[in-house]
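SEQUENCE, STRUCTURE TOKENS:
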Amino acid sequence: MTVSSGRMSVNDTGSWRNAEPKYQDHTPPCSFNCPAGNDVVGFVNLTAEGKYREAWELILKTSPFPGICGRVCPHPCENDCNRKTLGGVVKISALERYLADINAEFNPQIPPVKKSRRKIAVIGSGPAGLSCAWQLARNGYAVTVFEKHPQAGGMMRLGIPDFRLPKTVLQREIQNIVRAGVEIKTGAEIGRDVDFKDLVSQFDAVFIACGFHQSYKLGIEGENHPEVISGIEFLRRTAFGEPFNLKQNVTVIGGGNTAIDTARTALRKGVKVTILYRRTRKEMPAIAEEIEEALEEGIEIQYLTAPVKVHTDNNGISKLECIRMELGEADSSGRRKPLPIKDSNFFLETAQIFTAVGESADVNFTGGHIRLERWGIPADVFGRTDNHKIFAGGDAATGEGTVTHAIGSGRKTALAISRYLEGDEACPADLIAPSLRNVSPRIVALNDLNLDYFRRMEAVKIEHLDSLNRRNNFAEIKAGLSENAALYEAQRCMSCGTCPGCDNCYVFCPDAAVSHSNNPASKYLIDIKHCKGCGLCAAECPRYCIEFEAVK
């Protein structure tokens, strides 16, 4: 470091510069892409330091389901990871799962809050409803969740098989929500056991998060036969251990996650399974990894194929008439529209058909209190409907279709409900994830980093059960990380845009214009009066936490 033998304060040499450094954290792509709003860099860095409890508690501030998301989330946080070209993306979802599993024996710390007399009713105990309930309870509100099924969890329990999400993990994280003070009433169906009008009158706010449990029809002749069953219904009955007469040759129609989960569940019960999808694999909305695993397990997928008619006889379904498709121009979904090829009809031998061509919300229980659409409830990004007291979120309002999106929807709606009850109103700034509210909105890209400070490190490999050993049982497919693997993987994170206090700016400044700060939120101070604008601090910052701006 350059050191002056005299007092530098007498010379304000900063007047020489025509540009000046701005020290500020920027937005890491992982945190930006997390639908739940998790501080990804924050919990990964804590994991790298061996602070597993603190890392877990940090996730819980935005999501009550790290063990679930660590298993079933399609991890968009990893899509733009800048580590991709230096050994592969950081396995963020695996780290989230590790933190949840290693802290399984602990109860989460519930911050001490003043209890409010305000009461909120939540309809549905899926990820959106329980996320909202978790946030509201941690802020002192009395929350009651109404669930029509005998056990809580919504589609996390009914629609995600054990080989992807063990019920013990689900139950553990639901229990943490109960410990926070949330009351969950199961076997309480709105419109049958509980009157919706009574909820609106007895509670200060009502949040509808009933999910997509109502399957769309195929719209073909013969589909009302008893052996044409929705995939959701099959998964529900399997989840609750109800008897089901499964045939030996079944066909699943659809290309989403429900279709894949239905097919893989049927396969594990010992039957032959074929999936029909009217587009190509590229257009399938299911998680790509799940599609690959289904193919590995021996499930046949016939692409560019659509059902036309269910043929039956006295013994049940005799065959399914299908037609070949070709792709035309893009439709409203952004995918190319499938068009039937004339005279390409053929027959598929099958004894049972499971439909999974999309779902909608069954919200007829609202009784005219709010406006409804065919698919569900129109609401804004904060879950606000045209009735100021009624909110809606998760799939019932957004249709986004993942657990993580539903968690984010529930969190935002909890904020809006809290603001409403306090006589305030949620604003656009509230949409920003908590960890990103005090940082620059600039998303850090690979070319923003000083790669001289990062060596190539190969990503850990996640162990899987091989396809032969998973075809006939519901054992969890993916293994968790060991402690050594978790530490290594967390230390691969480059903390893009997030200052870890590496001291490069302090060491390289030739004018001693950078000093340490006592403020934990800002690790360094820059003395602009003595900064000559050489740019060394920005050039040597590995993570783009300093950028140069022209002097105005």
